[in-house]
Each structure stands twice: as structure tokens, then as C-alpha cells.
Amino acid sequence: MVENEGNVRVDSWIWSVRLAKTRSAAAAACKAGHVRVNGERAKPAQAVKPGDEVRVRQEGWERVVVVRKLIRKRVGAEVAADCLVDNSPPRPAREFVTAPGLRDRGAGRPTKRDRRDMDGLRGR
């Protein structure tokens, strides 16, 4: 259901082009201020049209897409890819995360000194 006329809600469009797993997640992102349309903070019911720039912040990474076609319903990934132009910067590499200090089973609760050592390992 690709359209070239009219307007589509931004939360519906984000869900349709697979930038969010559910429409309620897309609406929640809008309400939390993680979605911007043409540089302005977007409410879930805000309309988008072809040519608009949509920025969606996800997990510390910002997706920057330009609306190419309007779409109301969720469709296959190939069709969804045709509805947007992805101008996102490359995703940052995952930092090597050290495992928290593991304790032997039955060792009991960590002491204050143990907690300080674990915090030092975590960089706090």
C-alpha cells in the first residue's frame, strides 16, 4: 500500500518502514522526544510527506532517513527499503565490555572492599 498523495502519521510510517518493531514503540519514541521531523521534535500524530527528513534515536545511535514514498501498512523489507533514503552515519562499533567480577557460588555477599574493586574494574 504505497501512496504518493496525502499525509501519513510519523509513528505509523516509522513502523511501516521497519525503523521500530511495533507501532506502539514508534509512538513511545515520539513521545519521549527520540523522533525529529525536519529538525523539530515530532508528536506521534504529526504528518510526514515525501522529502521530509526523519531522525530516530535508537540505543545511542541516530538513524537519519529521508521519506521517499508514503506507506501506511507494514510490508516486506524490500518494499520498505524503497520508501526511504538512509543517510545514517555508520553504527558505532561495540566497545569491548569486560564481564563484571564473577564470584564463586556460595562465596556470600561481596564486602565493601570487593565492591570497590569491582567498581574500579567497571571504570566508576
From TrEMBL:
Composition-biased stretches (Basic and acidic residues): 114-124
Domain of life, source organism: Bacteria
UniProt-annotated stretches for the region Disordered: 87-124
Boundaries of every RNA-binding S4 domain copy: 8-72
Cell membrane listed as a keyword: no
Signal peptide: none
Keywords for this protein: DNA-binding, RNA-binding
Family: Belongs to the HSP15 family.
Name under which the protein is recorded: S4 domain-containing protein
Species the sequence originates in: Kitasatospora purpeofusca
